[in-house]
Specification:
single chain, 327 residues, 7-stranded mixed β-sheet, 14% strand
């Protein structure tokens, strides 16, 4: 009797073991299929990226200029890692820059740099939104997304410039104002609104230059100026293409379509009379662009400085009030 029971148990164990082995084989085969699919997917992505790179290289080789790039390509160019930041422009355009710190209310925001400098011998106030260089510097500067104290520092410097009769030159490069909890608690929206109100009536000339990203109110807070200029591959919009695609289509992958619809390139801004001048970019060698910008700054600042302050403020106000009239 005992032998029969033992043999029955052994037989059942053998059956179970066989089923487990078969199931393991099936699972192993399925795992290989999944792994193969993942490899194929990655390979496809790499191939697509390589194809896009070759296509772009071939387009560049055929003589296509930066002005002929699509809107999404312009966005990527504006965000490019090696793109010159505000500090580069300040060092190249001005002499004896002396940075000033703090908003006299809360703290010093490293995302906004500003201070005194000389433009061809004329004292000016320079304010720029700085994204930073290496990773450590970018983190310290919050990747160029200012807090309220950054905008309040900028306003403090503008009011100081007004007191001493110095023209104000703003250099803009930001994806937008920082939207963290602390920033909202300290009045981010109010800080931006105060800048817009004060810049409308500031009694000295204001020139703003967009050198990369110009995102929403965070950029506008330094761009309510007598004239607004853009670099060829800079952008200016109320929201990022990713945000636009997510809101309109619930699909962030439709960024290229969104970028085209948003009309955010420098060429679009000229067409809709949002900006006054666009400077061509000459690749890695920025010497020609810097020379053109500096010459334009000297000429424009001199012209606006000779204008009656009340007339200049009214023209500035009217310039922004007409936005949207063509739509």
């Amino acid at each position: 009797m005992t032998d029969n029971i033992i043999n029955s148990i052994a037989e059942q164990a053998g059956v179970v073991a066989g089923m487990a082995k078969e199931q393991a084989s099936v699972m192993a085969a399925q795992a290989q299929v999944v792994a193969a699919e993942q490899v194929a997917k990655v390979a496809g992505s790499v191939a697509a990226a390589a194809g896009q790179y070759v296509e772009q290289a071939s387009t560049k080789g055929s003589g296509q200029s930066d002005n002929q790039l699509g809107a999404w390509e312009k966005v990527k160019a504006a965000r490019a890692k090696g793109r010159p930041t505000a500090r580069f422009y300040i060092e190249q355009l001005f002499n004896e820059f002396t940075e000033m710190h703090g908003d006299r209310r809360f703290a010093d925001d490293a995302a906004v740099i500003g201070g005194l400098a000389f433009l061809d011998g004329r004292p000016v106030t320079v304010i720029g939104i700085e994204k930073g260089g290496d990773t450590k510097d970018r983190v310290r500067r919050n990747f160029g997304s200012p807090n309220p104290e950054g905008y309040r520092k900028a306003l403090r410097l503008m009011k100081q410039a007004e007191k001493f009769g110095r023209p104000v030159i703003c250099i803009v490069d930001t994806a937008g104002a920082f939207c963290g909890i602390g920033a909202e608690e300290r009045g981010q929206g109010q800080a931006i609104a105060e800048n817009l109100i004060e810049m409308t009536a500031l009694k000295v000339p204001i020139i703003s230059l967009f050198i990369g990203e110009g995102g929403s109110g965070g950029a506008l807070a330094l761009a309510l100026a007598d004239e607004v200029w853009m670099m060829e591959n800079a952008i200016y919009s109320v929201i990022s293409p990713e945000g636009c695609a997510s809101i309109l289509w619930k699909d962030a992958k439709r960024v290229k379509e969104a970028a085209e619809c948003m009309k955010l390139t420098a060429a679009d801004m000229i067409e809709y009379q949002i900006v006054d001048h666009v400077f061509e970019e000459s690749g890695r060698d920025m010497s020609r662009s810097i020379s053109e910008i500096k010459e334009a700054l000297i000429t424009t600042v001199t012209s606006y400085a000779q204008m009656d302050s009340e007339v200049r403020c009214q023209k500035r106000y009217d310039r922004f009030r007409k936005f949207g009239a063509l739509l």
